[in-house]
Write a structure and sequence with these properties.
about 500 residues, alpha+beta, 5-stranded mixed β-sheet, 11 strands, about 50% helix, about 10% strand, globular, disordered C terminus
């Protein structure tokens, strides 16, 4: 790429990147499903030593956890900004960083960095829409590691092998699945480039440096509260292939999702790329596609396992393409990629604005909730017309993210996160209560132990059915589809319902 061409690219990259950040900053309600759970974890870490919160009584900090980088960064940023802003900054860096690393890899491998612009709107696909924050934050780190991986596979040295193995080990503290994925991809790259089985073993051996961390963590997690469940579940079959457009774009309508995916593919085709003959460059895409299309959906306590790796499909496919020869119209074709990216980002913004309107009223309702209490969230209406996911599945955790207070059902019940319940301190709740709120039984699941009940419902909830008797719950606040009730037996006089 000429100096003038490089300058044009970086101008376009900066402009499209600024537009790509608009969805994260233009709405009050950031509609990412699991995000409230992560905000609550950081809030507890920030207030761990506050005696008024009393978190150490019920919870413990798991220092050996594969999520610490994201939480450490959010914790540090939360010292300067509010916790929701801290996560917006992290996600902003991830969206732009993924595209930037992709562009850098493309320049090294012989592709066209302009193609990386298509990764900006696709960064808002289902993995991000689900709010898999730590996994999404890991994406640019994994892609960054592939550069040394290709170089080591082609020209191995002891130094490059050690650096690669230690780099994989560092991924453990970003996300353990990112470490396992990077290990598989790097092994495939080395296998494709190795001239013999002996050479493959020698070049891949340094990757074993990363194994002790996940193995030790798994051994520890197997005896922890919320230990992984030995269950494997496959869903989808061949339908996974037809669902790819929705997975990549998070557009809920299948036909519109297919159109949204077709646009960048057509723009990419207009630049006339050529498929590489180097098998090592196809290896990352082959591994990614195999996981997305054939891996389990649920494995040992990890849900939506296969779909989350879709975030790597676009970058790894681009790594397998070579830049075509310069022809008349090549410059216009590259600007068409930028224009397509802007059009898809407009779709993302419309989706976020739509979900924000659906979530309107939550902040007002939570403002009426007294701090430092125990809240149970029942999501009778958790879906959205603007998303194939369930953006309101964990919205009740925003109460715990505001300050001292506990909300349920919390990820602190699971084994993966840094803050978890101490043995015997979690109140009894049915599994998957967030998906099946009707399973809650007041007497069986400790209804008397909750001060506040937040419900999302299109119509007024049947509180007598929820409480098991009349008079147990009194209205405290209501706005839109959000209904807040107080446990009449535990004080906190209710305010008039608007």
């Amino acid at each position: 790429m000429s100096e003038r061409g490089a300058q044009s690219f970086w101008i376009a990259f900066a402009a499209v990147s600024l537009v790509a950040l608009a969805p994260l900053w233009s709405v009050d309600f950031l509609p990412l499903t699991d995000l409230p759970q992560h905000e609550a974890q950081v809030s507890m870490l920030r207030q761990w030593r506050d005696p008024e919160c009393g978190y150490p009584i019920d919870f413990e900090i798991r220092w050996f956890s594969p999520y610490w980088l994201t939480y450490a960064l959010a914790w540090a940023l939360a010292g300067l900004f509010e916790i929701p802003v801290a996560f917006r900054i992290l996600l902003s860096a991830t969206v732009v960083g993924t595209a930037w690393v992709t562009a850098r890899r493309l320049r090294e491998l012989g592709g066209d960095p302009w193609w990386a612009l298509a990764c900006l709107p696709l960064a808002y696909g289902s993995p991000t829409s689900w709010g898999f924050v730590s996994f999404v934050v890991a994406a640019p780190f994994v892609l960054l590691l592939l550069g040394p991986g290709f170089r080591h596979a082609r020209s191995p040295t002891v130094r490059s092998g050690l650096a690669l193995g230690l780099g994989c080990a560092a991924l453990f503290y970003v996300h353990v699945l990112a470490l396992l994925f990077a290990g598989l991809v790097l092994t495939a790259i080395i296998a494709a480039a190795a001239p013999s089985p002996r050479a493959f073993l020698a070049r891949a051996a340094p990757l074993a440096l990363a194994l002790p961390l996940p193995l030790a963590w798994w051994w520890q997690a197997s005896g922890a509260v919320g230990a992984p469940i030995g269950r494997v579940l496959w869903l989808g079959g061949l339908s996974r292939l037809t669902e790819l457009p929705i997975l990549l774009t998070a557009v809920p309508d299948a036909r519109l999702a297919a159109l949204a995916l077709a646009l960048p593919l057509l723009a990419l085709a207009a630049t006339r790329p050529r498929a590489t003959r180097e098998l090592a460059r196809w290896a990352p895409f082959a591994v990614t596609a195999a996981i997305v299309l054939a891996a389990p959906n649920f494995l040992f306590g990890t849900a939506y396992l296969a779909p989350r790796f879709a975030i790597f499909l676009a970058p790894t496919l681009l790594f397998a393409l070579d830049r075509g020869p310069e022809r008349a119209g090549s410059r216009r074709a590259r600007w068409a990629v930028a224009a397509t990216a802007l059009a898809l980002l407009a779709v993302v913004e419309i989706r976020f604005l739509g979900m924000a309107r659906e979530g309107a009223g939550l902040a007002e309702v939570l403002a009426a909730a007294p701090p430092g209490r125990r809240l149970l969230y029942l999501a009778f209406d958790r879906g959205s017309r603007w998303s194939p996911e369930a953006p309101f599945l964990h919205s009740g955790m925003r109460y715990a993210a505001r300050g001292c207070g506990v909300a349920e059902r919390s990820f602190a019940r699971e084994f993966q996160l840094p803050v978890g319940y101490r043995p015997g301190r979690a109140t009894p709740l049915p599994r998957l209560l967030e998906y099946m709120p009707h399973r809650f039984r007041w007497d069986e699941h400790g209804g008397d132990g909750y001060d506040l009940f937040l419900m999302r419902s299109a119509a007024e909830p049947n509180v007598v059915k929820v409480a098991g008797a009349a008079g147990r719950l009194a209205p405290l606040a209501h706005a839109g589809r959000w209904w807040l009730y107080v446990n009449a037996a535990r004080g906190a006089a209710p305010a008039p319902v608007p």
